[in-house]
Fold this protein.
Amino acid sequence: MKRYVGSSHSSSISSVANPSSPDNNMKRAKVGLLSTNFLRVCSYNVDGLDDLNISDRANEVCSILLQEEPDGFLPDVILLQEIVQANFPVFVSRLCSAGYVLAPSSIPEDNDYFTLAFFNGARIQITRSMRTPFSGSNMGRDLIKVEGRLALGAADETPFSSASSREFLFMTSHFESLGPGSTERCRQLTQILDNLLSFPGPALFAGDTNLREGEVKACEQYKKVVDAWMAAGSPAAEKVTWDMSINDNLKMDGASFLPRMRLDRLLLNWKWGGIGTTTASTTAADSNKGCGGGKGKKKAAETVKERTELVRQWKLLGKARMADGRFPSDHFGISCLVRLPASGV
């Protein structure tokens, strides 16, 4: 959830070149990742509108993202919101030198803050990328869409052939903020859901949605996609991504309550994990309703099982304070593994 600032750059960076030589950490990660059945995705609103120790915080976010998991996983997809000119060079330098490709490579010239998307080129071959403004946004918000081929399974000499890869769509955005932005925010959600549901292959969205629970419940289309946090079993300790009861980077002196909200979300269509023919007729929460009979309970259990097998290791990022006592961002990042579809499915 962000305050709105005007749209004028003192200067602008129109494009960047990606370094061609990844560092050793990324080289080690490529071997392990290509032999797995999962894709690691991270999304993080890095709070570029907070000028205080902005470079230190950006570097800390990069260190968190590039820290290898115990299983050897580094992210395949890194989606960032609220980048500004002051932290843009940090993210481009550190992530591109680690072997990631920035797509699209251009950034808006008339917005003070924007989104970025980085991809592991060993697994993802980008064929098309675009940044499209939301026509009704009063805050300069837009949608990044990246299409290409996703390598499946073990590495071979032709990882992006039709036999060993799938077409995919990845998206990120920073939805309209604050209460007055609700109508436009819901329109933006509908546009995302339309893209997820219409794409013929695996499609994924992750970003800062600013969504309130009431807005989600009122959206029937939302029930037709997979909410990754719910698919991972709805872990209560890893739910709230904007939690002012813990994260005090943003001060609200004199407030009668401290907001706790699940603003950052990851949504999937049903083309992941070999379950593309499954109809997402209920949400994970809905699967607990109307289960009085044996058949209802069995169907609910099967729905939860499918979703649990689809998403693993859901967690929040940046929950530890830095040396100066602040958090890397006022948001916590999100990270999870998504099961890849079977080759040829």
